[in-house]
Amino acid sequence: MRDIKFRAWDTINKVWIDVFELKIGQSGEVMAIAALDGELYGLHQVKLVQFTGLCDKEGVEIYEGDILHGERTLGIRHRVGYTTGKFICYSRHGFPEAGIYHFSKKCIVIGNIYENLELLRNRK
Question: Is the pLDDT of residue 95 over 90?
Fold first, then answer.
């Protein structure tokens, strides 16, 4: 069983927020997040990302939106995403390539798409 964890990127202040609680609406969608410091954020201000349940070869937790780099992929960088009920790595052309499990133990997290998007521009 894996931990269900989230973190949130504050698009206005450009900082990570430690998510304490998700505020769910009556129809089941996430309406807002509550941070550990008690602050409440609407989804218009944050990008919510989920923990994949996996760690890289250094033990760093891998989240949706992280950028991975590793020897198995010949030095190519991959973006972690979520689609059709599973976490995947996207190829250099933005296409789903493989499940994240195949990459996790051979790669390291080198950044994320919110703070380090330039890492994907030069993928080698």
Answer: no
Q: How far apart are CA 3 and CA 63, in angstroms?
A: 12
- The dihedral built from the CA positions of residue 2, 102, 110 and 46, taken in this order, carries a sign that is negative
Q: What angle do CA 41, 18, 65 make, to 5 degrees?
A: 90
Question: Distance (Å, rounded) from C-alpha 67 to C-alpha 117?
Answer: 9
Q: Where are the domains of the chain?
A: 6-48, 51-121
Statement: the pTM of the whole predicted model exceeds 0.70: yes
Q: How many CB atoms lie within 10 A of CB 88?
A: 23
pLDDT of res. 104? 73
CATH class name, domain 51-121: mainly beta
> For the chain, what is the radius of gyration of the CA atoms?
15
- Give residue 93's pLDDT band: very low, low, confident or very high (50, 70, 90): low
* Mean pLDDT confidence for 31-45: 94
What are the backbone dihedrals phi and psi of residue 43, each rounded to the nearest 5 degrees, phi first? -70, -15
Partners of 24 in the β-ladder: 30
